[in-house]
Amino acid sequence: xxRTLQTARSLLLVTILLLTAFPTAPSIAQTVxxxxxxxxxxxxxLPASVLSSDASWTTxxxxxxxxxxxNNLRHAGTASGDVVFGPIDLxxxxxxxxxxxxxxxxxYPADSLTLSISVDGGGTWTTLMGPGAALPEASSEYQTVTTxxxxxxxxxxxxxxxxxxxxxxxxxxxxxxDDITVAANVDLSGVADTFGFSSGSSSTNGSPAALPLDLMxxxxxxxxxxxxxxxxxxxxxxxxxxxxxxxxPGADWTIDHSSSGGTARVLLLGGSGSVIAPGEHAAxxxxxxxxxxGSGSTAATTVSIRDLIVASNDPGGSxxxxxxxxxxxxLTIELALPSAALSSDSLLLGTVAVGASASGTVTVSNxxxxxxxxxxxxxxxxxxxxxxxxxxxxxxxxxxxxxxxYAPTPTDFGAxxxxxxxxxxxxAGTSQIAVxxxxxxxxxxVSADGAVDVxxxxxGIDAVLERTDPAAVVGTLDMYPFPSGDGNVDVxxxxxxxxxxxxxxxxxxxxxxxxEGSMPQPGKASRPAIALSGxxxxxxxxxxxxxxxxxxxxxxxxxxxxxxxxMRTNPNHKVISPSSSSTTSFTxxxxxxxxxxxxxxxxxxxxxxxxxxxxxITGLPAGFEPEDIAVAIGIGAGGExxxxxxxxxxxxxxxTPDPV
Length: 660
Hints:
Blueprint: H1 2-21, E1 28-36, E2 50-53, E3 57-60, E4 72-76, E5 81-89, E6 93-104, E7 113-118, E8 126-129, E9 143-148, H2 151-154, E10 158-165, E11 174-187, E12 194-197, E13 201-204, E14 209-217, E15 223-231, E16 237-244, E17 253-260, E18 263-270, E19 279-291, E20 298-312, E21 319-320, E22 323-324, E23 328-334, E24 341-342, E25 346-353, E26 358-365, E27 373-380, E28 385-387, E29 392-394, E30 399-406, E31 414-424, E32 430-440, H3 454-464, H4 474-477, H5 491-503, E33 529-536, E34 539-545, E35 550-557, E36 565-569, E37 575-576, E38 585-592, E39 597-604, E40 614-620, E41 629-636, E42 641-643, E43 645-648
Parallel strand pairs: 12-22, 13-23, 25-32, 33-43
Antiparallel strand pairs: 1-11, 2-5, 3-4, 4-11, 5-10, 6-9, 6-11, 7-8, 7-10, 12-14, 14-19, 15-18, 15-20, 16-19, 17-18, 20-21, 20-23, 24-26, 26-30, 27-29, 27-31, 28-30, 31-32, 33-34, 34-40, 35-39, 35-41, 36-37, 36-40, 38-39, 41-42
Helix pairs in contact: 3-5
């Protein structure tokens, strides 16, 4: 028992001595600690890895490199300029190497670029590559440039890199750099195995967004492939591509993805002999998204990864434990805003005869926008009004002429209006144009004024009696047999017209056009005028005081409970009949008890009311108001339309005596 305990103590002592004499070797791996491909910005902007620069350094999408392609870093002109990158952490690294691809024009000498390093925040600089070493000897083609970073200078430090271009012989002289990479031997002891976003947040101004993913793998096995799912808001973003970084070069890798709604699955798989060695792999993959949420808005959205699977290069396909972190990236989408302006928000197209059309122009401009104004639709609330374009694009500072037209039809004419709506991507979303016109010469519009009323009956009577040329009104009055007519105008056509006016619709239920300007206006009466009084025992009475001879009268009242009475009176307020009034007229009326609509139509080949006569409508309800007079028009002896005004004498106490 004692010997056994002593033996155990001896073994423990030997173990301690061995661990002290031969400590565990650190896990060292060649790792990419810095990389800039310039594809995460819109030219000529510089990426965030640039700490300072002169104006002569910009990004450019021209002359794409043979490496990552896309944008590159460009120094142009004849003046010298610096660009500084960093900070680059080499505190736990050694054996660092700087690599990039470079191209120059023949007018930019090969000895006109240097590369220096600073370990004190830019206070002092040590040259890594002097004139003639930092650019390829040959012009007009990309070549790879590599230089070591001495451990005596940079090991254990946070460094900055400075490229200094001295310029060429002309304004077109330039050099281009791309895929600037710093790789080093990094001690991975105690480092977690992770795969996730390089940063927690970024923003885009509407251009495609590149979100790099970093891999930290301490080994010892190599990685053959990985897959994971990506979640994003597909109302704001569309996943367009997955790009590989420098750790997976060549064509012997499969990098692919598939999207469905707001989820995408990404696959990375190495071919025979293609593996990912242990180390820190910056931007091993980059997810590319295009904003889809339209212009003129700012939105924050989260892109996340999940369900990560990492496979080793073991023929048995063993799984490697790698944690997906950081698994979320906050992306702010700041889309450029277009503007929308109209030269006018209303357009009057005038009077247009049936069979013709009229048009006018409204200019749509983008005066202060920073993005294209995209008009995706132009719609109208009326089929009579149309636009010559239904979709178009207006560049910033530009304009487009939009032609709007009106074309009345034989059954759809008269006072017409519509709203033209432009749907677009500016802040308001829509712009509207109010359009109006009057169509004339349609069905029943004998007087060609855009309305179908007593004036057309009077004009029709004159045509039938051949006081005017009947042939001139065949197109508007000839409706018997309805609706095509027989090529002539006679009393049967007048009958169709009168019934349509009384009923408000044609026999085919097509409504009549509105009588523009026929609404009575409240205020002081002028002759001829309508007066309301309360002297009738049955309630309110309406009296038309002609003052001048009238060949026609049309009154439409609304809101009635019962049909009123109609009579003519002379200056002594005595009721007169048509035969005793020396007029040759007919009076027609209609009353719809369901709607309370009453129509009085009085027309004559001579006069229906002499200047001294009155037309009186009695039996109106006590609550009858001037607004209940929907139409009140008279036709003068010369066929002219007269808009009748209204006076409410119930308010002044002035009464019109009852007829006797």
